[in-house]
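ok trying again, last paste got cut off:
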Amino acid sequence: WGLLLLVVALGLGGTAATRCPKPCICDNLRAHVLCLNGNLTAIPGTIPQLTKKLDLRGNSFTVIPVGAFLDTPYLTHLDLQRCKVERLEEGAFRGLGRLVYLNLASNGIALLYQESLDGLSSLQQLILEGNRIEEIQPGAFGRLGSLTVLDLRANALVYLPDMVFQGLQVLRWLRLSHNALHVLGSEAFAALPALRRLSLDHNELQALPGEALARLDGATRLDLGHNPITYVAEEALAMASLKHLFLDHAALQDVAPDAFARSPQLRTLDLRENQLRGLPPLAGARGLARVSLAGNPLLCSCLLRPFHDWLARARVQAEGSCTAPPALRGRPLDSLRPPEMRCGRPQPPPSPTAPSEQLKVAGSGQCPQGCTCSPDFHHGSCENRDLQEIPQGFPRDTRLLDLRRNIFGTVPPGAFPGLKELVSLHLQSCSIGVLQPGALRGLENLVYLYLTDNRLSTLAAAAFEGAPRLAYLDLDHNAFTRLPTGAFQLLPNLISLHLQHNAIGELAEGDLAGARGLRWLYLAGNTIGRIAPSALAPTKMLEKLHLEGNRLMEVPTSALRGLSALSELKLSQNPIKRVGDGAFLPVASSLQHLYLDNMGLKQISPGAFAGLGPKIRSLYLESNKMSNIPDMSNFTGLEILNLRDVPFHCDCRLLPLRRWIDKLNLRVGATCGSPAEARGLKVKLSTTFQTCPGWGRGEAGGARPDKTKAASKPSKKKRSGKSPARGFEKSRA
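nice, full thing came through this time. structure:
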């Protein structure tokens, strides 16, 4: 019967197996299909049915619709990196019950709904790194019962609600690094019985989230480095199986003696690069074998002697050296003798800042008629009920309130009484034209406010009165013709501002006054033709600036001055025909990702990329009209370079680019537009260069192949140190 079923399956799939979508490469023997860096805007419908591995990296899908992969039920691996995906429709992956690996990294996904990942019952690895995920609704991962690795690094998360990871019964590694987390629900990790490693480094946690971490009985490694944590309190960490704790590069000033008493298995403690002048004997950590204190301003006086004695008694290895007194400066801790550790005038460490209190949960109440309330998740929902007034009477401990798709028109003052615990408020598609002063009064813990797809054309600062913790404000698809001047004065914690697809014509001086903590600014799809030189001056912490799909005629170089943290700049689909010398100099020291695609760009000056170099990781130049590009040989850190649909003139002037592309281990897609005999050929394969002076020096097939091989060895060795994820991304040009 097994053989018969196999024959039938092959018979059903045999016809499909012979077809291959045009921009793709099909390996029927291994059941692999590659459709890399193409112009696909929809999932190809003619992929062989028996395909097991499908690689769609570098396309432009925007939305993954319902049932997009129903025709390929045998898929085990699916790669959708860098596909400009913004939304996963509910049921997008239904039918993929065999899928074990799904990579959605480096897209624009902002929100995960409860059924976005339905149908993936066998999935083991889910990669969502480098998206714009601001919020995860509890239940989003509820049907991923086989998942072992969940990667949510480099997103825009600020808050994790209770039970957000419910259903992940076998998850072993949860990666939440490089977000902006500063609030964790006490039950955020309650449903992760198999978790062994949790990565929370590079976030905004100001205190050890002990209550949330106490739910992780089986975790053995915890990464909390690069958080502004100043103090570890008594018995702050109760993790029964924890062996390795990383608290490096934080802001620690003190650690309580019994801080780790309830983590009896702790073996290594990394406290490098903090502000510790000393430590007490960590008597509670009986199993500790190693403590790293390198990079701390250790005062090796008599005040440190109890800790030094404890190290010897407990046989704990310590790394670190003295900063003071001057006579002991630079001495390793393990070289000190007690008599050397004297006291003159004792200078005790500064008083630590007490950890902030956990959010107190108020009592519950009734649920408004026609709405649903979930006491387990602290959710309330009145979605799509044709309501004309905002309902009241939700439980006081509600944290997420979903009022989408109603017809409110106006949000009056005090519209949400008694909801002090509310964190996330959804008002999308509600025909709202006015947000009245005081509308958010009393929402002192509100972090997320979604006002997408309404009729707002102006906002007063007083509308945000009473919501000082608001960090994410989504105003996409409204009717703004300019930024609501002064509206951000009462929002000191605003991190992310969305104003995409409005009708904003310019950014003027003062438009962003008060937005001093802003990190991500999204302005795509407006009509911006001018940015005043000082328009962005208040946003000195800005990291991402998205300006694609506007009417800019030139790179706004003067407006970029002072943005020393800017790492991502998108100028795609603007009518910029020429990029002049020094266009990116103001952000050259920080810029990592630059988008200059689909602009009709005709000329890039030789000095256009002056100042840019090894920090650049991705450069998008596809679908332009220039015939040459300037020297980029110092772009040694490139991981992505897209030169598709650029009509290069393949003559001797392009030889330096030809040689440079040859050395890259990247798929760049560069093709010749002229002369006629080379049109359509890949730049690497064109024979027009063989008549150029100097051809053969270093080229494959040239006069000195041995030297070429020898010269290439160091670069290969250097690349071998890349992480597996990056190495997988790179392939032959």
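cool. Residues 19-195 form a domain with the Leucine-rich repeat, LRR (right-handed beta-alpha superhelix) fold (CATH 3.80.10.10). DSSP finds six helices and 45 strands in the chain.
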